[in-house]
Amino acid sequence: MVSDSPQKRIGVGVLGCGNVGSALIALLQERQTAIAQRTGLKLDVVRVAVRNAARDRSVALADGVLTADAAAVVNDPRVDIVVELIGGIEPARELVSNALELGKPVVTGNKELLANYGAELFAAADAAQVDLLFEAAVGGGIPLIRPLSESLAAEPVRRVMGIVNGTTNYILSQMTEHGTSYQDALADAQSLGYAEQDPTADVEGFDAASKASIIATVAFGARVPAGSVYREGISSVGPADIAFARRLGYAIKLLAIAERVGHIGGQPELAVRVHPAMVPADHPLAAVRDSFNAVFIEGDAVGELMLYGRGAGGRPTASAVLGDLIDAAGNWGRGTWTPIGDRGEAVICSIDDLESEFYINMEVLDRPGVLAAVAGVFGRHGVSIRSMEQEGLGDQARLVFITHEAAERDVQATLGDLRELDSVRGVPALLRVVSR
Amino acid sequence: MVSDSPQKRIGVGVLGCGNVGSALIALLQERQTAIAQRTGLKLDVVRVAVRNAARDRSVALADGVLTADAAAVVNDPRVDIVVELIGGIEPARELVSNALELGKPVVTGNKELLANYGAELFAAADAAQVDLLFEAAVGGGIPLIRPLSESLAAEPVRRVMGIVNGTTNYILSQMTEHGTSYQDALADAQSLGYAEQDPTADVEGFDAASKASIIATVAFGARVPAGSVYREGISSVGPADIAFARRLGYAIKLLAIAERVGHIGGQPELAVRVHPAMVPADHPLAAVRDSFNAVFIEGDAVGELMLYGRGAGGRPTASAVLGDLIDAAGNWGRGTWTPIGDRGEAVICSIDDLESEFYINMEVLDRPGVLAAVAGVFGRHGVSIRSMEQEGLGDQARLVFITHEAAERDVQATLGDLRELDSVRGVPALLRVVSR
Questions:
Q1: Is the CB of B342 inside 8 Å of chain A's CB atoms?
Q2: B331 Cβ partners below 8 Å, 6+ apart?
């Protein structure tokens, strides 16, 4: 038994003691003996930085462990490994940088930090020859970063498509399964604690875009800054779109998509975007319901993979942090680390150059000749129509189109011209259709 | 860029050049530059052992690389890492042992070897302080071993349920979706190359039982020898069972299940078994179709996870082998390894002591009083009935029961007594119902 060999004591400093931090500390207390038996490592939480050290916590900590001084935790010589769970850019960035400079491995769940300052922090970790692990930053408890960076280290990944935001998946699932309106589903998500009072980061796709940047960087081995991710949210998706999608054999999901479209000068050319999309009903992603997350990976050799689970929540996310912490502690104990490697910046393909099928739902005047005028605009831009349905009468009249594969630029130009037509009252939804 | 740093050349010896071996060699050739750029490792296949060195291969290898002498590959001083893809017990066991004794890391995809000699080989790897990696042994290209052993290293796993045999999942999917008979679906699988001419290892659950042994050992950190896995195949599942299951809201799947039922003397008490089971239609495993595999993990902290993908095939499996090979090569280059640790043997709970709901389909004589007699037998053994349906008339008369939770031992005793009744012509199917 490993438990017979001398145990290595490793001091852990935790920055932030919210949902994930307190779940992590509780898990470490529950599992300390089992971890020591299995790995020979005794993980001791020696300092925990919180905003307000006087507040009551759900976890029991010895006197002197809690402090409001995060820098003191990083600098404490008893702290061997730093776990950063503060979130946001500052002071997280400075604290993580300082820990790495001091030669302390860092485990973080901070997607915003990595999406915006990943390159600088990866370089700092490699320079210091210590681990910087971040499984919890994308997909909560789902093992995703490790499979992508290790199991698929040499896999020629073609495309990664993820449902990486539980709030929006919950809202879209409610709309699909119960015919709920967007506003009601959002209010529901807020009352369940899935959505913030200001839901912008979730529903407008900012959270998913940060995760898309990290997924793309790891899957394709080339840096994708958060700012280069195209982003659209779900607030314009209406019950009519959900109903049409269903009837046509699709589910509407907010997807983070990172795709290899070519190579330029030794670097992959990537298209990375977040937008609502029509997913074929028999695609594994279509069955991902409620607030679950899943990431679907297509590789040249491995074929199709999907990793599914709880993308958020204190305990699932803490489980991912703990996996990283044990890995980092094991490496630290053996005097080694896993290099990340400078990846160079990916070449980003503009969404204008991408091709896909499109779903377009427009409100029109209910009078003769409208279809001819609308079809004429599609034709002028070379966008060919696969199917059309007219729905409703009078004020409710709509035309719903699915196009054949067309370039985004041509479809956007088509929409621009359509909006100029007197007979078109509005184009409430444009959705891209996922190809298999 | 990592590519600017000096590359470390690593000699790879491959034992076996069938489907997976030749796919691995082709992948290594395609990806050598990309791997070197990303990891700084130049992986060179220096020797390949085959049964017949004169036969034509689909891969191009330099003169002198192919040999029929597998021991010579292991012993070759230019071979730093050994990849074992021969399968079966001998000579694989001896070759892997010898490689480890020589201090050479080993990557293997050999489920039979690990299920039967895992303990001995894990100890040899730890004694030699080198890696023994086996991602490809379960689930083909699906990252499974790494997530279980690393990401979930400290996760209190409650239950793992896997569809780990593609042949049987293909057969059951055909029966479910097209109403095909078992024999026709099997013949179909054979003509597609999914099933062997002698399909026993697949359809009787031997293949899945080896994988269950490995999954349980990794997930629970305690040895589960292959011989302690309870095993039933799918050859007794008929179209009537599939149809009943569907009507009742279930899909029939061959599951490998490893479950923690308690702790005895510091070791987990586990129930590990392979049998066809009724899976609720809205469970993620029910949607795993065709020859795909998936493993569903339930943990105390992480909640529900599912890992889905291609469980077999040359290129998917080679992709998993390559992930391990890069990991082992990186560790070897840095002079380190990932210890497995002696896990002690798990305490195995007999299937007789397990409780679940049961589906029982029996052929009965079509005459009054039969139900009373049958129900009396259930009652005598304390097995309570949740639902009953009578189907068919005359020679086709059947009773189909779903029980409440009951102990396997009591249900088996019930069946024994039922078979003695004059009015019962046969009990063709007993299926366990998966609880959520």
A1: yes
A2: A336, B105, B131, B337, B338
- Among B319, B332, B334, B336, the strongest candidate for a mutation testing the A interface, having the largest count of A CBs within 10 A, is B319
ipTM above 0.95, yes or no: no
The mean pLDDT value for A114-130 works out to 95
Least confident residue range of A150-154, A174-178, A371-375: A150-154
Q: Tell me which chain A residues have a C-beta less than 8 angstroms from the C-beta of B38.
A: 153-154, 221, 341
Which residues numbered 307-326 in B keep a CB inside 8 Å of some CB on A? 307-310, 313, 315-316, 318-320, 322-323, 326
For residue A146, name the pLDDT band (cuts at 50, 70, 90).
Answer: very high
| Residues from chain B contacting residue A338 (CB–CB below 8 Å) | 330
The CB density around residue A415, as the number of other CB atoms within 10 Å, is 18
Q: Does residue B327 sit at the A interface (CB-CB below 8 Å)?
A: yes
Q: Which residues pair with A309 in a beta bridge?
A: A293, B305
Q: Report the mean per-residue pLDDT for chain A.
A: 93
Terminal CA-to-CA distance of chain B, rounded, Å? 49
Catalytic amino acids of B? 211
Per-residue pLDDT band for A6 (boundaries 50, 70, 90) equals: low
* Residue from the list B154, B302, B313 with its beta carbon closest to the beta carbon of A326: B154
Range B239-262 average pLDDT: 94
* pLDDT confidence of residue A4: 44
Measured between CA atoms, how close is B285 to chain A, in angstroms? 11
User: Which whole number is the average pLDDT over A278-293?
Assistant: 94
The C-alpha R_g of chain A, in whole angstroms, comes to: 24
Q: Chain B: nearest CA to A2, how far in angstroms?
A: 6
